[in-house]
């Protein structure tokens, strides 16, 4: 049993990894990332944690990423 804090970090880390630029690929948009991560709900991502992440992400008009601020 993984504690809820660990499940939250896992979901946020997955979201961050996909929405961040990498040397081998461009960052994906937030809505694309949510759609992609939905495939893993119940297997790799906690359904309740993902539902909360999805609400936060989709309600935001803009997301400021650390990569964008540093660059």
Overview of this protein structure:
Helix content is about 60%, strand content about 0%. The protein is mainly alpha-helical. The model has no long low-confidence stretch (mean pLDDT about 90).
Jot down its keywords.
0% strand; mainly alpha; 71 residues; globular
Nutshell version of this structure?
By secondary structure, the chain is mostly helical. The chain is 59% helix and 0% strand.
Q: What is the straight-line distance between the termini?
A: 39 Å
Taken in chain order, the helices and strands follow as HHHH
Question: Beta fraction of the residues?
Answer: under 5%
Give a quick account of the main beta sheet: strands, pairing sense, barrel closure.
Answer: none
Output the radius of gyration. Answer: 12 Å
Total E-strand runs: 0
Summarize the SSE layout with pairings.
Elements lengths: L3 H16 L10 H8 L9 H13 L6 H5 L1
Helix pairs in contact: 1-2
